[in-house]
């Protein structure tokens, strides 16, 4: 049975490149914790380095975790919002910045462990390139692997999980899709290293995310964490899960169950124009729908469907499952 | 209340560029009519020129229409499967071929009327271009308008409806999306000329089809016909309607109702590996689901939603409408 | 002969939703004017309302225009960076905000005229919707037309030009592509209303921009302004013009010349990680290349190519034009 | 120095799903061999199983190879054009068909070796799925690996190379992109197994193909073969190489050289409406341009560019390399 969590910033304020002042008002850390807590069924929270947690506000965060009884699901080190990392963190052409990416991560590992966490979700958003002839692909992938390896060996009890995304903020990311990332995970070859699926990132990469879950199962049981949102397919729109798609989410949750995924399922949204708390609540309510639907799937029936792959039978099966007709 | 129909070839055999021999067996005209007839709730059939109907088999088709009591919903003249039209029909650089495109259409208009039809659905699939510097865009759009105008004035009692598609078989089509086509319809400015929405073509064009229905309503009530199928967004996959998407179809059917669309809703699929009859049946069964859901929409509630546009309320509303939770 | 200009902010600092603090340092207004001026061949500048020009800094801007002898090419009113416009400006569900969108535009019209300008380039970035069932499409397009009409009739000597874009910051824009916008321009039907092509926006809309130039020529000579940048096709990456594509730009500049476009060609970029001045300079240097190539096109040869549309001949012609082989 | 070849069918006739009769006339095997031979600089030919080579016409093909002195670059077994393979070859849910996929491949291996070839380029076009809940992803990827392994161990002196493609004719392929395929290649772990890059397939998968070359180098030197064509980014348009893009091809050829690729570079096109021989010739002429440009790259300059990654310098460098300005 999956556990549900929310990335703290999801209930806050949002900017984009045109609305630098933010679409809404800012919230205090306390308010944000309360807003997460108010979503029924949510038992965990994720924090972004610098944005929500650092060495200076450590005690304040600890107090909020205790007060709300939310588990620290993961820390996402800030490798994307610091100008020094603007041209890459683990893959910066400057070796000092590459070192800093590792040492900053170690700080976050220590903080996470101290707060009772056991997971770092790395999102190497700036590790990539924009222009042709800009990236020295072999060297830079090598640097990425080196840096991540150094993070993994620092405290092997803490899991490190790489969140992939094909583009944004770089035009091309090195950890671009599930198999590109898995290849690096296999190359590094450490048991505390895995992959975070962000549903929307995978969609933009052209993946059917249920298949991505299966691939991570097949090649080493490497699904370590899940971020959820919805989009229209060409960009990381970061919308309410379930607001655009339905059937692919049912299949996704089915494969999570089938492969025995036991981690958290977090919202990871940018509800620019919505109340963030309400938008997260909506996603979690849709998680409930998809999970209860998966629980109602008759194993015998679905086994038979997989044996033939008959699309008309699948269609009828889903219509019945979803709408009883 | 919408009426349902099927394009005859949808229950037949299918080829693609790699499987030239066809994925299945061929069916006789009689068999195909029987297969269409066997789908519950279907009262009409569409025919493709040459492929299903021509001057030679006219009587045979007539007999089948009578026998099955299916209405002739439209004829789609074959402007795409004849080598002479390979580089364009209405927009061919050869004026003789442009003339032929018009005269072939007139033949189909006569046949349609004779068989009790009142609609020609033009799909100008070859009217476009592949390479940069290949299309003389102004002239060729002009030729397109001239040719369609000549078809419209031939028998004004017969409606002519242009089906748009962004690409395939050309890399760029002239009638590429709903507004590109509407612009030509306005330029030609004849009351018997309108637009056919193919749901999948519009999706590939990046449209939200509910909005396309609204646009056609706003600018002259020009939605004349509807073709249905589903796809993954980047290509005209021509799959079972409802097999990929759910909510966008609910919105689409809602706007069909809201704008008072009274024409037929046809399947337009390529079930390469499925039994065509069963695949059409599945689509029609999903039409039933979407239509009954639209019928259950509370007008007061939805009016309130449109007044605020609150995405969280919309999400909750849809979850309740779809799944009662 | 086209004239070249730069949007002032292009030589400044840049943020995105992850790097809210900006990738670079900020520049003063004076510095930015100097940076624009330093790009060889640039004779004009575009200003964004609020960001660069308002009622308070009017004199400072005027002084900078005089000092640098740059022409004011256009003002782009800020309909996208003010929280009140977060859910729409001309199409806000709140009539007071719709009125404000018009009155804010009128202020910018007055300022532009006072500064010697004759063009307002409207970019209605927030006028659209994000979720299904959120936009009341017919009403909202109607409001858009009303608002723009009010701007156009205010001072008919000032041209108003609508810049279209399929998405971002909304998931769906009303002025989404060239024909969607042209349809509204035709509906409003005023001679001082036209369309701004942003090359990258059109690419994301799936357009071949040379064809878009032709379409604007055909239906009323409505190309009023041009913004330039390059991208990978799925998103408005706002890169250096010519850094990704080559042949499509040659065709685009060819059609600008062929249709007699005489306005400015502006850079419109987001060089997050580059020096903005240098990135603009690069684009302008590529403009020079494309324009000189177009000037070398032999009219007789190209007329012959358009008569046959032979793709192999076109390929050989371009290879010779570009590389002399 | 790369060697150039042509897939025999590229100089023949072409069908699509609408133009089943073919856009052009058919050519005899002799004519096709002559047409390939007539393209300057081409020294090899690729053959598709069944379509061009089988046990019955073996001698005829042999004679043509000798007559034209073209090398047999590879055979592509027909796993996509036989109805039995319509729902999968190596991944068919029917074990007998999976066995047939292997045994058919073995026949082609024997023929290839007999004709002096040492490469089988597998294109598993039907190995994938169309609908959600249709593919049993873990089992089916496993079957794929089993089948390919059996082909590899049959005659280890013959290289086997998997050509990936994200979709078409299935909506999702198992060998979908470079890293998905490399993962299977690593799992099978045999030295005669590698990957074929089809430039257009990779583009549709969202790859920058120069990076794909680098990735194949980094993880085991696994680039075994190259197929060339061009497209608009969203579909396998199979156009003349160089007709759409320029700079990305320069970078691609640069990385081929940099990584020491020594195999053949083949055209793989579908010039539906062009003379196939002329369209192949155009591609090969563009190969010449790109290769000569790469040869003119100053190693010191490019090393400096890679050290900074300065996009403006790269832009200036390319403009000078391409156009001397």
UniProtKB/TrEMBL annotation, chains A, B, C, D:
Output one GO BP term: rhamnose catabolic process
Q: Which GO terms describe its molecular function?
A: L-rhamnose isomerase activity; metal ion binding; xylose isomerase activity
UniProt key word Manganese: yes
Q: Is Manganese given among the entry's keywords?
A: yes
* Alphabetized Pfam families for the sequence: AP_endonuc_2 (PF01261)
What Gene3D superfamilies does this protein map onto? Divalent-metal-dependent TIM barrel enzymes
- Alphabetical list of InterPro entries matching this protein: L-rhamnose_isomerase, Xyl_isomerase-like_sf, Xyl_isomerase-like_TIM-brl, Xylose_isomerase
Where does it reside? Cytoplasm
Task: Enumerate the transmembrane spans.
Answer: none
Q: Name the major location.
A: cytoplasm
Q: In this protein, which residues make up the domain named Xylose isomerase-like TIM barrel?
A: 34-287
State the UniProt keywords alphabetically.
Answer: Carbohydrate metabolism, Cytoplasm, Isomerase, Manganese, Metal-binding
- What is this protein's name? Sugar phosphate isomerase/epimerase
